[in-house]
Amino acid sequence: MTTLADPEPGGRPGDLRRVAALTADLASQGVHGIVLAYVDTAGIGRVKTIPTARLEAAVAWGVGMSPVFDTFLADDSVVTTDVLGSPDGDLRLYPDLDHLVPLAGQPGWAWAPVDRITQEGERHPGCARTFLRRTVADAAARHGIDFKAAVEIEWAVGLGSAPAGEFVPAASGPAYGAARQVELSDYTADLLAAFAAQGVDVDQIHPEYAPGQFEVSVGALDPVAAADRSVLVRQTIRAVAQRHGLRVSFAPAYLPEGVGNGGHLHLSCWRDGVNLHSGGEGRYGMTAEAESFVAGVLAHLPGLTAVTAPSPASYLRLQPSQWAGVFTAWGRETREAAVRIVTGTTGRQDRDANMEVKPVDLAANPYLALGCVIAAGLDGITSARTLPDEITGDPVRYGPDEAAALGVRRLPRSLPRAVEEFRADRVLRAALGPVLADAVTAVRLGEAAAVEGLGPVQVVAAYRWAY
Question: Which of 173, 234, 395, 414 is the most exposed place for a label (fewest CB within 10 A)?
C-alpha cells in the first residue's frame, strides 16, 4: 500500500507499474476525469481535476497547485504567516492510488485524495494529510500502537429550489422520525447504493435531531484512510443530493438556534491486533495505556478546539445540554461529556470498544483533527497521565467547587479564546510543526475577524454553504 508512503518525483514505489492497468480499467467504466482532493486549513475541500488519460503523469510528476490555499479563509480571502500566504511558489499534488475510486454519485468521474510535496520533492510542511500520516507512523514506531478511526457525518438536507442563501428543510417530522425517513427515502436509498459501489461500509444512516438533518456512520479504518473516507462521503452526499434537486449543508450551525451538525471522532488504540480499550484492568475494561490516552485528550481539549471546532459557527453549536460535549469530562455512554467511552455490546467489546470525541464538527480538517487528537492522547501515554473521575448526566449541573474537583471545565466559548488555548499548548503546536501551527492560528484569527460584530443570523449565513 502507498497510503503510508511519501510521494516522490517519478512516482511512489510501485505506482507506475499499476497505473496503466488502472487507467484502462477507469476508461472501460466510462470515467473521463479524476478529482484530486485535499482539505485546506480552513476545512474547505479544494480540488484540481485531470482527464483520466493524464493519471500516469500525475502519479509520476504530480499536478501543480499554489501553496497560498493553506491560508485561505472559508470566504476565499487570504491571510498570511511569515511562510505562507504569498502568491509565489508551487506545489505538486500526488494522488494516492490505494484510495482512488469511481464516483457512483458523479458518473464519469473518479476521486482520489492527494499528498502535497514541494517542486524539489520535499514534504510540504502545510500538508495536513502528510501530518496525519507522519503522526500515525511515529506512534507505531515509538509506541507500537496502531489506530482505528471513523468520523460521523451529520448534514442538513434543504430544498434546492429555496431562495438563494436560505435553508428550507427538505423533510419534516420529528427527530429520528419515520416520517422524515420516508420523505427522503429515494435520496437515502441512492446514497446507500453509491456508498456500496464505492466500497464504503455503512453502519447506519438515519434522520437526526435538527430540522432536515441526517447522519451516516461508517466503518472504522486506519486514521489516514478514515479521514480520506470522510471527505469522500461528503462528496458523495452532496453529489447525490444535487441529482435529487436538493442542497446540503455540513456547517456546524446551519440555523441560528438549535442543534447543529457534528463530526464526532471515534478512535481506538491497538497493539499487535489487540484493542487496548477492552480486556484491561482499568475502568470499563480499558488498559492503563488506554486510560492515559483518554486522559491526554481530555487535558488538551481546550487547545484542540481551535482544530476540531475551527469556525465562528462552531461556537453556535458548542452549547451546553445539546450533546455537543462542551465540558472537559468523560463518561461511559455519557453523551454530554466531551469524551464518551463506548464499551460495545457484550460479545463484541474486543472489536468495538473505543472513545468518541464530541466537540468536533465538519468545518474541521479531518486530517488535522485526527492527528492532533492522536498527538494529545500519545502525550497522555508518555506522561502516564491519570484519568480523572468519570461523570454521569449533564455536567452543567455541577457547581464551581464540584466541577473543579472533577476537573470539569467549560471549553472555549469563542474562536479567539480557542486560539489562545491552542497557542499555549506546546504539545499540539510541536506536533503540527511551526508552519502548520502558524497557519492554524492565522486562519482561525482571520475567520474571527471576518465576522466580528455580526450576530448569530449573519454568522450562520456566512458559513451555511461553505462546508
Answer: 414
What proportions of the chain, in percent to the nearest 5, are helix, strand and coil?
A: 40, 20, 40
Which helix (H) or strand (E) segment holds residue 156: the answer is: strand 153-159
With a CB cutoff of 8 Å and minimum separation 6, the contacts of 365 are: 39, 40, 41, 42, 43, 128, 307, 310
CB atoms within 10 A of CB 93: 25
| Residues in a beta bridge with 354 | 342
User: Which residue in 20, 114, 111, 128 sits closest to 63, CA to CA?
Assistant: 114
Give pLDDT tens digits for 333-355.
998 999 999 998 898 988 999 99
Question: Could you write out the DSSP letters of every residue in 332-346?
Answer: ET-TTSSEEEE---T
Dist CA 175 CA 210 (whole Å):
6
Q: Which residues contact 238 (CB under 8 A, 6 or more apart)?
A: 248
Q: Is 429 helix (H, G, I), strand (E, B) or coil?
A: helix
The single-letter code of the amino acid at 309 is: A
Grid cell for residue 35 = 478529482
Coil vs helix vs strand at 162: coil
Whole-prediction pTM? 0.96
Question: Could you give the strand order of the β-sheet that contains 153-159, starting from the edge strand earlier in sequence?
Answer: 202-207, 213-218, 153-159, 246-249
* Residues 6 or more apart whose Cβ sits within 8 Å of residue 341: 277, 283, 284, 286, 294, 330, 331, 332, 333, 334, 355, 356, 390
Pair 444, 363: CB distance under 8 Å: no
> All 3 cell numbers of residue 341?
467511552
Whose grid coordinates read 446514497? 191
What's the alpha-carbon Rg for the chain, to the nearest Å?
21
Q: How far apart are CA 418 and CA 410, in angstroms?
A: 11
Q: What is the end-to-end Cα distance of the chain in Å, rounded?
A: 30
Supply 246's cell numbers: 436538493
Tens digit of each residue's pLDDT (9 = 90 or more) over 421-467: 999 999 999 999 999 999 999 999 999 999 999 999 999 999 999 99
